[in-house]
Amino acid sequence: MIVQFYVYPLNWLSDLFNDFYNIVLTFSFILGALSLFDVNGKKIVQQSPGWGYNLVLLISLVITLICGLFIAPPGHLPIDEGTAFDWIFKYLFNPLSGATYSLLAFYIASASFRAFRARSPEATVLLITAFLVMLFRVPLGEHLWHCLPFVGQFDISKFIEDWIMGGFNAAGQRAIMFGASVGLISVSLKILLGIERSYLGGD
Amino acid sequence: MRRLCLFLSLFLALSMSCWADEQTVIYRLNYNWLQKIDVADGKVLAERAVAGSENSTVEVTEHGVIVRQGNESKVYSKSDLTPIDLAVDSEKVIKSPLEDVKDKFTYQERRHWLIAGTETKIDGYNYWFSGTPQQIFTFGKNKISVLTENNLYIFRTFPKGNLVRKVSLRPIFDWTKWNNFLGVLIVAGCVFTCTSLAKKGKNLFIREIFGLSALDEAVGRATEMGKPVLFVPGVGEVDSTQTMAALSILGYVSDCTADYDIPIIVPNCSPIVMSMAQDIAEHAYIKAGRPDTYVEDYICYISGDQFGFASGTCGMMVREKPAAIFYMGTFLAEALILAETGYSTGAIQIAGTASASQLPFFVASCDYTLIGEELYAASAYLSKDPEQIGSLKGQDVAKAIIMILIILGVISVSLHWTWISCLWTVI
User: Fold this and answer.
1) Measured between alpha carbons, how far apart are the two ends of chain B, in Å?
2) Mean of all residue pLDDT scores within chain A
3) Domain architecture of chain B: domains with CATH
4) What is the ipTM of this complex?
5) Under an 8 A CB cutoff, do B333 and A108 touch?
């Protein structure tokens, strides 16, 4: 894969190995389904606390599987638009995913509350920076800034965009990315050369 | 080292040679975009914005691509087109009656239609549609009158332009990526050199990584409280190096939990990762002589969907109340959901990821965070194996070189040394 990245005639290897990987990945979902049946099935049989939820999960899994594999109007695939599987996806799966995602708003608020406490000089700098970015990147904050005497002439949004976001923030992120990229090459080399084997359960 | 030099020499010798490459390409003008397209697979290979309209014609000569509009013409060099790799097989379902097909497509959609591989001569805007009636016709100016009302039609556009068959020679080695290749060689060289130094017994200093030192403390706390340990290997697949690094750390953590005789719970987002995690944990418990403590059901598959996975894992946290939670690997938007739920259970939390966008969330919610490279360094740091410690030192040397190059880059740009910028140009 490394060689094909630099050598034209071997470019096709990338697609080939990706196809291999996708095939293995697809079949591995059978493993996942078996694990779900095994773990949840045991809980239902033993009537462990909350076993009703396990039952709901297995019933949902079976119904989705049947709809996705078999139920379709003539001339259509079971995964086409307008089928039962599509209905499950649109009206059950997507709203549930959306609901979980929307929890982030509350979690961000609680995490920010803890992170932005001025307990040390560094935390105070973080608090001030966060205050500036949060307030003055919205039209209301910008309007309020321009209403201030003397300093109102100064373009605060440009300062935030160019200096805080484009300068300090981008520099910090890039530093992390540089370090991570070097680490990535090193780990890949160790895995390729067999120096690193602990991910296989060895020492 | 001798073998490495031999391999490099062979590789470079091969790279100098050339091979014949037959490529059928088409140059077309798509509104204001001159595009180069590979007919075989329909990919837009390169494009650039030019002055032109739908009435312009495109002619391909040895000197370049000539765009003619009325009496005016302009020549564009073939190499002036910016290479891109973007092609979308697009179909659009439109319900007739249709006033103006072109208005029904967005600009972006029109730019990336797939070319039919069977087309040999492409001239004008062709729209293929299926439905009733089914036929192929050429779309003239704006109006389509053959469509009947209340039918669904699927349209696919073919591009306008001249078909050109050309045979070109290009080197085996992609020289446009020479700086990338050099970078990899430098990093690999640093890692190899430091590894061999470490093997020879040279004492190499590695700074303390607090997040990794705290792993034992977290497992010890779980043992004292008699509660399980939860390890989340992220939402990445096995093709992600972050997942590999996470599994390495799982090996160490499961060794600790096996030694202290406490269970480990590993919810998974990928069935392949689940199988690997099961093997790693089982191996650790057998090695510690406690195969009975290992519970396979604790290392299970939750869901392939990130939020389904997050919901299932949060449920586990609330039900099992683990004393220590580890988040290692690739994380996306679910990172904060997991970390905040873990925080609410009162567990000691250690996170590690190279996903820069999720790091702030982990820093805010977890007790210790492994930032970027620290995740990759974990395996070497924990194993204390001289060979692996050497590779860590190699990474540090590579980073020092990058820092020097950054300073050099700043100086060269400030002094307008344009010749040196080729080092950083990514094509």
Assistant:
1) 31
2) 87
3) 26-169 (no CATH), 175-203+386-423 (no CATH), 210-383 (3.40.50)
4) 0.87
5) no
